Amino acid sequence: MAWLLNDCCFAILLLLTAFGVTAHAGNVTYDGRSLIIDGQHKILFSGSIHYPRSTPEMWPSLIAKAKEGGIDAIQTYVFWDLHEPQQGQYDFSGRNDLVRFIKEVQAQGLYVALRIGPFIESEWSYGGFPFWLRDIPHIVFRTDNEPFKREMERWTAKVVNMMKSEGLYASLGGPIILSQIENEYTLVEGAFHDEGKSYVRWAAKMAVGLQTGVPWVMCRQDDAPDPVINACNGMRCGETFRGPNSPNKPALWTEDWTSFYQAYGEKTYMRSAEDLAFHAALFIAKMKGSYVNYYMYHGGTNFGKSAAAYVITGYYDQSPLDEYGLMRQPKWGHLKELHAAVKLCSKPLLSGEQTTLYLGQQQQAYVYQNNNSGEECAAFLVNNGSREARVVFQGRRYVLPRKSISILPDCKTVAFNTAMVTEQHSTRSMVPSEVFNSAVNWEEYTEAIPDYENTSLRAKELLEQTSTTQDKSDYLWYTLRYQHDSSDSQATLKVDSHGHILHAFVNGIFVGSAHGAHNRRSFSLDTTVNLTKGLNKISLLSGMVGLPAGGARMERNFYGLRRVKIQDKDFTRQSWGYQVGLFGYRSQIYSDLGSSKVQWKNYGGSIEQRLTWYKTQFDAPEGNDPVALNLGSMGKGEAWINGESIGRYWVSFHTPQGNPSQQWYHVPRSFLKPTGNSLVLLEEEGGDPLGVSLDKVSITSVCGRVSETQLPQVSSWVEKNNTNSTMGTTAIVKLTCPPGKSISNIVFASYGNPIGNCERNALGRCHSVYSRAIAELVCLGKNKCSILPSNQVFGDPCPYTRKTLMVEAQCQ
Ligand SMILES: *[C@@H]1O[C@H](CO)[C@@H](O)[C@H](O)[C@H]1NC(C)=O
Ligand SMILES: *[C@@H]1O[C@H](CO)[C@@H](O)[C@H](O)[C@H]1NC(C)=O
Ligand SMILES: *[C@@H]1O[C@H](CO)[C@@H](O)[C@H](O)[C@H]1NC(C)=O
Ligand SMILES: *[C@@H]1O[C@H](CO)[C@@H](O)[C@H](O)[C@H]1NC(C)=O
Ligand SMILES: *[C@@H]1O[C@H](CO)[C@@H](O)[C@H](O)[C@H]1NC(C)=O
Ligand SMILES: *[C@@H]1O[C@H](CO)[C@@H](O)[C@H](O)[C@H]1NC(C)=O
Ligand SMILES: *[C@@H]1O[C@H](CO)[C@@H](O)[C@H](O)[C@H]1NC(C)=O
């Protein structure tokens, strides 16, 4: 392109290039307004994407979609347990390749916020601590304890030095602009009294001493010591945050929850695009917020055993990018518009003075104006009421929808309103691609039930489960010999457990199961069992569904069986025999190598068979759509593809509404070969493998709904201003199918007063008969299309009424 430039511009280009090569960003600093990068104050939108919750093959597209959504920075934790699985042995390969992830973000021109922790919570097993940490003599986690501080400092320094040697801090020309030490420590600080306070001071000093050249934050830590910034976590930081603890620190929001993590037995938490936009805008307008991070922007998948206690395998599927990396609409698009609208206000926001005007009982205007240039003015008109409000601001009238904020980048024109969603809604479908319903294609292997004679580890008490298994397995067998002399063939068996699930066997025969739940510390099994006269073999399999992700004194938690009674006799202090894990697990029969270690049998057809492994083969579905296993016919267990665990499943644990908490389990494309893939399921409870399918996941329908008088959102506002477009002052319906797909059918079209909001749509009393024909004419066969809701297009089906256009289309 250079030959097209005249001399003047060419010189500037040269100058810029030279500057770009030699300059680095310099240290990142801050003041009471914002972070200062390259000498510039910044309003930043950030999104959490955790590198091990997706695959390196997914990272470029996830980051690109975040960038397209108006995200400036990617925030991630560092997952200590993955990187140092054995003390002193490190792993930074594959999904654990932190440096590659950060360099990918850098390559796409975004910043990075690195939350080193090392405690991260994050609904991650043990809050990211490696399990061996608890075996360090005299250790007490997360307090003023020398052995703990030594390990924390060693690991933090290792991460910081790695980032430095790769040149990844902004101070060295890299993308990292912010680091975090500790995480939500306030939640446990009280348990440690003065030592908690001194630990906070120590952690801040230690981190700052590592000289990263970029600021450190602590989240949910009101007393974060200088120069560490206290940041807010939650859903409503515009209302709940008490603000920075010094006028010289900016207001940062490290976790704006786009949904909430989900535990088995619980239903999905839905947070609307409108609510997210309202609170992000409020934080910026009212709190002078300058950094908002969406937690999560892409949640992803808790592969293997990484999910914390009872937490489901899919993580924050309701994020702007769903578990599979698909855009969740309208959330993704509505936030994109919000970001663009706020960026139009950057100048007055960053250099102007904030004033608050009261426009009504529940209506305020937050105005940012620069005294020196009267031109630069931005306003946020907040309606916190539950009804639409009419207000007057600077001599102009505005209608503010209920619970909404209008953003006026010039203090005159509304560029965006948080409650007016003009983005399309999208519907995701799971379409079976491979149905595993042929019995001849399955093989099975059932675990033998071990008894006391089979065990080599013995103790005269009930051992704590995780210290016995070293968290190498979710399972521990507790076995007992019981001499039954009574003539009564039945007896009661009562087991109290601090584990998560229990399967009980007597003489190798299943007698009962029980399990706990998230936020429940213990549970019991109370059942009547058949005994034989003489010696009986009691075998109790205690299972964990992840370690907890937090709490004070995690290292002292007790898991596993606490008390066992048969009839009225207490066996808690009898001689118990132990076996760690299942045979199939120890032999890794889910892998190619381990598979031959057992004798697989033809599938027997029993759907009640416990502790059974199932194995089959399949070819990868065609195309590039993400894929997921539909395990709706199974009970509880774990699934492997080509030896890689895609996580635990627990379909039988229903929500109060009677549905599985999670039925589909993501199989990353990169786990698959074109042909001959192995699928192995470990089923604990009983299930029907013939009901399993491998489904393609895609956006199959899109729907747009816009009112005639609805304001254009920011992108059309900018277009109007810059390109002199004729779109006028109303918003338009825009439909876009995923790349490579086009609109194959108009499912619904109505210009008038249609009922529904892209859900359960129906015609209203007013309807233009041309609606469908026009939608078909404009949209069929296209990847994207736009339609103006106007009488000029559709005729006027009902004069003097405000009309709405709603169009739903299928993508194929
Ligand atoms: C950048 O920060 C580092 C570490 O805090 C410090 O040693 C250095 O002097 C700073 N450089 C500049 C240019 O301020
Ligand atoms: C801006 O103007 C207002 C009102 O005239 C005044 O109160 C305020 O101090 C000024 N701010 C600055 C930074 O000059
Ligand atoms: C909005 O009203 C609710 C109570 O209805 C209150 O809790 C909240 O703080 C208010 N928010 C704002 C921004 O005024
Ligand atoms: C346990 O030991 C018995 C003999 O006491 C043997 O028959 C059985 O196969 C063993 N089971 C396992 C799982 O090793
Ligand atoms: C116990 O034995 C009774 C009678 O033989 C039988 O009906 C029952 O199903 C048995 N219970 C279990 C749990 O095996
Ligand atoms: C809109 O256009 C005017 C005139 O060209 C320009 O001064 C102004 O900066 C533009 N505003 C935005 C938000 O682009
Ligand atoms: C905008 O449209 C008007 C009327 O069509 C035209 O006269 C004017 O030149 C256009 N402005 C630009 C910047 O294209």
TrEMBL record:
Residues 733-812 form the SUEL-type lectin domain. Residues 1-25 form the signal peptide. Gene3D superfamilies: 2.60.120.740, Galactose-binding domain-like, Glycosidases. One of its GO terms (molecular function) is beta-galactosidase activity. One of its GO terms (biological process) is carbohydrate metabolic process. Keywords: Apoplast, Glycoprotein, Glycosidase, Hydrolase, Secreted, Signal. It comes from the Eukaryota. It is an enzyme of class 3 (hydrolase). PROSITE patterns: GLYCOSYL_HYDROL_F35, SUEL_LECTIN. Its EC number is 3.2.1.23. It catalyses: Hydrolysis of terminal non-reducing beta-D-galactose residues in beta-D-galactosides. Belongs to the glycosyl hydrolase 35 family. This is Beta-galactosidase. It comes from Rhamnella rubrinervis.
